[in-house]
Amino acid sequence: MPKVVILAEKPSQAKAYAEAFTIQEKNKTYIQLKPDDTFPAGATITWGVGHLVELKEPHEYKPEWKRWKLEQLPIVPDHFLEKVSKGKWEQFQAVKKLFQQADIIVNAADVDREGSNIFYSILRLTGVKGKRVQRLWINSLEKDEVRKGFRSLQPNEKDLRLFDEAKARQISDWMVGINASRLFTLLLQKKGFQNHLTIGRVQSPTVYLIYQRHKEIENFVSEPFYQIEGLFQADKGSYKGLAEIKDKDKAKVQALMDKHDLKEDEDTKGIVQSIDKKTKHQKAPKLHSLSTLQSVANRRWKYTPSHVLKTVQKLYEKRFVSYPRTDCNFITENEFSYLVKHVNQYQETLNVSFTPASLKPNKRYVNSSKVQEHYAIIPTKSVPTQKKLNALSREERNIYQEILATTLAMFHGDYVYEETVIFTNVHELLFKTTGKREVKSGWKELFPKPAKQKQEKEAILPELQNGEQVGAEVHIKESMTQPPKPYTEGQLINMMKTCGKLMDDEEDVEILKEVEGLGTEATRSSIIETIKTQNYIEVKKNIVAITTKGIMLCEAIEGTLLSSPSMTAKWESYLKKIGTGEGSKQMFIKQTSEFIDKLITETPGSIQQVQVKSTGEKNNSNSPIAKCPACSSGMIMDRYKFYGCSAYKEGCKVTFPKRLAGKALSKNMIKTLCEKKRTKVLKGFKGKKTFSTALKLDEDYKIKFDFGKQTEK
């Protein structure tokens, strides 16, 4: 019988798969399953630890590419090579051995292009060939869904196309990041800039959109505008109304007052000319995609998009919700049928009770033609007990209840309200008043009530009669135009998704609409985290602000395609074609190379106009840390990605890494090593477990662990 080896993306995913079957043996690098109906000869589940494999760094192709020099650009290897990621050699070797022994290899990584990339990058680097490869394609980690998925494994043709798409994206992002970051940094350093810029295909246009909003706010000049407001007193209460004029010129508004013989703040009479009442229905919101969930959670609880993704991922791994990295708001009839069966249980979990308005599928939510790889985020059949619900963190509980409420809302009745429009005639000038009254709360009863301030904004109108005479007092109301507001983190997710609305070119708008803006559902939150880490933006009280460094980046890339969402959109559009077999990976990489050549030619001229400013960051590259322990002439300096001797031109090759075994090495640690040859015991190193150790310099000036001095602190 064939030997089956299954590769999961990470240990937690492997554990979830294994729990759907009977486990025979657990090992630190794999789990062995007992034979059963699905796997008559049993099966072995192993895993990556995220990316076991990554693209090589420039200096691993050519040593001279380690130094940042303009004359070395463009950096484009003839062939792109991969290596085992740092600290993951042992797991890679275990996976390689299992692949060599297998007859059938199953790709059970996440069902998206990055999952395909992780699997095939590992497979390719192991050198294992000629094996039958199949694909697990599921949207839930529930035991019966896992078993069902493994019983109906798919061929890998589509998966290979997704791998080509992902690899084209990865290589092109590497090329843009390496070349553009060096190009702009080195040109700005010639003008006195003392730090580094990191430039990315998606992150840079995202920063630029935030910069555009910053400029709009900065350049906004508030201007007054004028309206005529009426205050009315009826038998059963008071209300307000506005005449149909809104103008920057107060004289025009005053002229209308004079025409109707109206004087400010003078008591007069008005007549209720018409009362128009309409009953309106509001449908329940669509089911959640990741971005809608991130937006709601940010608005309601100020959770960052990355925190929402981590939280919903935990719920997925606990089998309470379906696959989270989805851009879809629809489900198929299959999901709908199990949701119907669990409506009562879901209500009990949410502590609500209502009679479903309908148990039939509605195209607003259930539409198989709109579901591609993944359906919307919904609760699974595994409904948590009260004990399990209480064991969730507050964030997990909030997110789960939001998903549950949004799913239950499609079974609930519409929110029904009565909208009233009143026209009050004062000296033949009409004043319009609108009001809203709730008739049925419907699906809204499933969600937390909005804040009081929001509720108070909606006018409560008194009971009025047609033709009723009312007391009237009118005046010219002065207001000021308001600048656009800065983005919140939740709005940033929406802005990235809908930035096509900001484009002028119709073709670009259509492409951005087709690919849903900047980034993908799975990557937008990590892009925001990246530009935060790079100090291009800062977030205070959920408000996104661009930094001085971010402004400098945007001034530098202004006018280039790096500032334009349309470039990213066109790339994503072509990447999708690679995924469907209509495009070519080689063509995409060739076009990226041509783009970089153009950038290298044009940027030196365009960057002359950029004014170099202090970014407020420390000047890392020019501050001596300590005397070089190897030579007498050099100083150890911060070289951005590593520490190195300033006498490298004279032949001193001493360098120290910035990270060792998962721990950042500070300048003080490096200074101590250079001066005393060893440090005190330090905590926070990561291996199979977290450990503490002192560090020492050996005779070749390499940093080594010193476990012999553990008593010293």
Automatic annotation (TrEMBL):
The keyword Nucleus does not apply. Keywords: DNA-binding, Isomerase, Magnesium, Metal-binding, Topoisomerase. Its EC number is 5.6.2.1. Residues 159-600 form the Topo IA-type catalytic domain. It is an enzyme of class 5 (isomerase). InterPro entries: Topo_IA, Topo_IA_2, Topo_IA_AS, Topo_IA_cen, Topo_IA_cen_sub1, Topo_IA_cen_sub2, Topo_IA_cen_sub3, Topo_IA_core_domain. It holds the Pfam family Toprim. SMART domains: TOP1Ac (SM00437), TOP1Bc (SM00436), TOPRIM (SM00493). Coiled coil: none annotated. It catalyses: ATP-independent breakage of single-stranded DNA, followed by passage and rejoining. Belongs to the type IA topoisomerase family. This is DNA topoisomerase. It comes from Halobacillus salinarum. The lineage of its organism: Bacteria, Bacillati, Bacillota, Bacilli, Bacillales.
